Amino acid sequence: MSSEYLIEVEDLKQYFPIKTGFFKTTPLKAVDGVSFAVKPGETLGLVGESGCGKTTVGRSLLRLYEPTAGTVKFNGEVITAKNMKDHRKEMQMVFQDPYSSLNPRMTVEDIIGEPLDVHKMYSNKSERREKILHLMELVGLNAEHATRYAHEFSGGQRQRIGIARALAVNPQFIVCDEAVSALDVSIQAQVINMFEDLQEKLGVAYLFIAHDLLVVRHISNRIAVMYLGKIVEIGDADEVYDHPVHPYTESLLSAVPIPDPVIAKQSKRIVLSGDVPSPMNMPTGCAFRTRCRFATDKCAEAAPVLADKGGGHLAACHNR
After folding, report:
1. Contact indicator for 179, 191 with CB cutoff of 8 Å
2. Cα(51)–Cα(279) distance, integer angstroms
3. Burial class (CB in 10 A: 0-12, 13-18, 19+), 302
4. Residues 6+ away with beta carbon under 8 Å from 250
5. How far apart, in whole angstroms, are the C-alpha atoms of residue 7 and residue 181?
């Protein structure tokens, strides 16, 4: 069953029950009706401020959290808790924190080799070692690193170990959860170039979750902007960057540092007023209206839906 898209996410919801009284729980709406699709070999960048639900989207997609509602399709097939095990090889994740995502009791060789062991992807010990050394070479690690433990490495090298582990089973889709945010800028560039080279060689698709909008623009084909559990804008990377429609996207992009001091002086920073509302007590209508300079009465009455603003550039705003 083939499809134009490798991954299709429809109305994904992830609510966490939070105790708010003796026998009372209130749902925390971390992800609230998110829909998007990723083509084979494409990179979709997912951006937004801390706590907007980006990581939860990635984890729910791979069923590390069981979604509250919504469907996820892989190659046209709906993924359920029962058949997820068959798709584990095809969908992998590079975690945000290279310190806590690696087992301190395992050597690098065993960390990278674990997916090979689980999926029985070698016929003898020498083939296993050969595959591990090839993966280490792919991500820029030396063969002598194989017998060391994770704590002996820097953050950048640990992240490379995590990337090699994700690539071990030849996945078609990888969720990169802030995969470069813990690294130095020079190392970031190397790792991003490595991601791009791997995409060319292996044809792998990425959901690239990040804070840094410059990094996202560089690596992504399309960008989705998230605010309080919802996608507020999605479109071609350059189009979203150069012609943002949603007021939140405008504000987010105005905060990106510009290396040219002359242009930086002319550019105007859009500062948002007020605090981010709690996902347990969301405002009625549009979630962004409490901080939006274009908000009207209509924004309080009904939540805007993603609408095409031309050329596949979607935004959820009543007034733009």
Report:
1. yes
2. 9
3. exposed
4. 244, 270
5. 25
Indicate the pTM of the whole model: 0.91
- DSSP for 87-146, please give it: HTTTEEEE-S-TTTSS-TTSBHHHHHHHHHHHTT--SSHHHHHHHHHHHHHHTT--GGGG
Query: Nearest 5°: phi and psi at 30?
Result: -70, -40
Mean pLDDT by groups of 10 residues along the chain of 320 residues: 82 92 89 93 93 92 94 92 88 89 93 93 92 91 92 88 92 92 81 90 93 88 94 94 92 82 78 82 89 90 90 89
What single-letter DSSP state applies at residue 272? P
Please provide the size of the chain in residues.
Answer: 320
List, in order, residues 6 or more apart from 281 with CB less than 8 Å away.
none
DSSP state of 263: H
CA 285 to chain centre: 26
Cα dihedral across residues 219, 12, 36, 310: positive or negative: negative
Q: Label each residue of 52-93 as H, E or C.
A: CCHHHHHHHHCCCCCCCEEEEEECCEECCCCCHHHHCCCEEE
Structure tokens at 183: 């690294």
Q: How far apart are CA 206 and CA 39, in angstroms?
A: 9
Beta bridge partners of 94: 176
The helix/strand/coil state of 205 is strand
Q: Which two tokens stand for residue 263?
A: 């242009």
- Greatest Cα pair distance, the chain, in angstroms, is 68
Beta strand pairing call for 205-210 and 222-227: unpaired
- Contacts of residue 286, defined as CB under 8 A and 6 or more positions apart, other chains included, come to 292, 295, 299, 300, 303, 304, 316, 317, 318
